[in-house]
């Protein structure tokens, strides 16, 4: 069974955070910062306690709340995707807690896929943020022609 090297995830998250600082606006920077804090708190939870699934579920739920807050106050679509992928990560946590017969490999693979998709959506939002910088200034009624 193939396993990604341990440096791949921190590198991908770092690239998204730098991209959000470089090209992103407040929403993209906030989402990247929230995900970085989520990742650091998750690492800390597993260092302090080896069995930290419930704590990590709480941390991930807080991240979902932050992503939903961003999604509800912006006109961009990427936060909807990042919040949806984060919701799938939370449902994966709940499935593992509800049924211990779910294999560890399936659980970790699903969490990994959802995590990459969340930061992928944030990265997309940061990359395309300059293109939409002036679009948010236009009122919806002014867009009709």
Overview of the structural elements:
- The chain is an all-alpha fold.
- The chain has helices spanning 8-23, 26-48, 53-73, 78-98, 104-128.
- The longest helix is centred in the last third of the chain and has 25 residues, at 104-128.
- The chain is globular.
Using brief descriptors, characterize the structure shown.
single chain, 145 residues, 5 helices
Large-scale geometry: globular
How would you sum up the major sheet?
A: none
Q: Tell me the distance between the termini.
A: 57 Å
Secondary-structure content class = mainly alpha
Question: What ranges have pLDDT less than 50 throughout 5 or more consecutive residues?
Answer: none
Helix and strand string, N-terminal first?
Answer: HHHHH
Helix content: over 70%
Count of beta strands: 0
Beta-strand portion reads: under 5%
State Rg.
17 Å
Number of helices: 5
Q: Return the average pLDDT rounded to an integer.
A: 89
Q: How is the secondary structure organized here?
A:
Layout: H1 8-23, H2 26-48, H3 53-73, H4 78-98, H5 104-128
Q: Care to give the gist of this entry?
A:
The protein is mainly α and 145 residues long. It has five helices and no strands.
